[in-house]
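Entries read sequence, tokenised fold; example below:

***
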Amino acid sequence: MTCLRTFYFIPFILLSFLSLSVLSTSVFARSFDDIIESKKINIAVYNDYPPYSYMEAGSAKGIDVDIAKEIAAKFNVELVLTWMTPGETTEDDFRNFLWKGHIIHKVKADLMMRAPYDRSFSQKRDDIGLLANELVHMFAPYQQESWQIIHNTEQLPEVETMAMFQYHTIGAEIDSIPHFYLTSAFGGRLRDNTSQYASNELAIDAMKKGNVDAVMGLRTQISYLSQFVDSSKFKLASNAFPLIGKQKWDLGIAAHNDYRTLAYEVGDVITEMVLTEKMAHIFSQYHAAYEMPDYYAVE
């Protein structure tokens, strides 16, 4: 009886081991050596988020996609993209795509694009005083992002201050920081002149039709979208945004905290791209404004 049990138990052990091995290749984040050995790297990018990452005619396009391709080429490995649907917070995205895996697909990426590169965010504490992102390493800033307004010069020749939107209409993507800013800052005095849209693209379409005089959004997105409007009529403003909090912030890359060697290798690739102006060239291909992060500034 004992021998019979052992006979049936051994295949079960082998099957369990093989199943675990298969899962580990697709579920668990990996070290740099594992990536080189497998000849594949999995990089997570946001779904339908032009100009950073989007699909066009069946092909992956965008700034983050091009950066991911450069990383894969430097390591001489195949690029596998994981398309992320954003959660409610960045911490949700870290959990779903870097250190735990989504409740449905369980896939973990080796790297995640568009991660905040901010010391206060990386040192953020949870309700009991522990690091909220202790399993995530954020590194390699590649873009300094900010806010941008594009305006119809026939209705609004210049945007001198935000106070002008007490008298001029402006659009923003619903539930975005610009939307909250325009409807709540300055004692809510801009609220009645603010319209909300499902995307910045739709907001700019409304501006082209004359429904609003201006649109506010991320500088990279607004500058990218500006190529699709009449440049003699619609201009990018250069105003500041008082009371919005951060005027500028850095975007970088995130990896599982256990794999610092991977982060160092990727960091070298990004540094080379920034200092040789290859990064600026990628942004220019999408007509997107680029600003080098202060991290690379020469004293």
In short: The chain has two domains: 27-144+250-296, 145-236.
